[in-house]
Every structure is written in structure tokens, then in C-alpha cells.
Amino acid sequence: RGSCVSETFAQVFTQLLGWLGSFVEWIFKWVPVYEIVTYNEVAVKYPRGGRPKRLGPGVHWYCRNLSRIAKHFACRFTQTVKPICVETKDGVPVMIGMVITAHIKDIVKYEVENLNADDNMDEVAQGALRDVVMEYSWEDLRKNTRDGTRFGNVLSNRIGKAVERFGVEVESARPNDQVRLDLLRGAVRIFR
To answer: CA 159 to CA 50: how far, in whole Å?
Structure first.
């Protein structure tokens, strides 16, 4: 009988300490804390029940129970767009990818209006790349991607328009690899 009472007391005491720890943690969430947003960062503050707000560089105070802050770098970044398979205007199958250089222009659009901005931008950029490649023949595509300026300008403009709703401004878009798939299939047959 004595051991049964001591086990029960130990269980009650453990539960009491657990509850006390949770209560102290809850109390500390009401203590204001600060977040430092550096010069090359932008942030979004999500107040409970309010509209998200853009935060620039500086020290920002907030209460963790009432709001949260999400930070992103505002400097230039590159994003590699996964290669896609597409046919040119003259029916030549091509696999082509690209690299986008951009920077965040509107942090609220980038952070709030997208579930995953990077993946969404990648898919939209792939669609724009497909549209551009389908306007060129294989020879025009090879010639323009070697030169880079005309094709790169067309890509930059098209991709810039496609991803501007993500709060991003595209500085440049350049193809990073291209392979003519029908020739590649022939080479694979030779080596088998």
C-alpha cells in the first residue's frame, strides 16, 4: 500500500512539474523580443489577425504570442531552372535549362502570396522557356544561344513578365545547357 501511494505521488509531482514548465514557457512568449533585420535583408511581420507588414533594416520588437517575423535576403540571387525537354519550331527535340539572376522587389508578394515562391518561380520560368524555345528553329536557337545577347534578352523579358507577380525582378536569364536529343539517342545506339 505504501509503494502505491509513492508512485501516485511521483506521477502527480511529475505532471505538476510538466504543467509548471509549460506555464513558464507560455509566460515567456508574452515577453517582447527583438529581431535585427540587417542592411541586406527584408522581412515580413505577421501580426495576429492583421495584414502582413514589410520591415526594412533595423531593430524590430514583437511578442512571439501575437506575431512572427520571416526574413529573406534582399540582395541579388541566382536560381537554376531545371532543364526541360521541348521541340523547336522545326521539330527538333531539345533539352534546355537556364539560370535566372534576380532580386526580391516586393517582399510581401514574395513571402505572403506564394506557398513556395522558389518552386513556383521555377515552374513558371520553365513554361516561359518552353514558349520561347518553340519560337526558334534548331539552327536559330544554336546561333542565338552561342551569341547569347538576343536570345538572353528575349528570355529575360519573357521570364521577367512571367515571374513579376512573385515580387521578383529578373536582371538576366541565360541558357546554361542545351542538348539535341535526337542526336543524343543516335549516339546511345552507337555505343550499345
So the answer is: 33
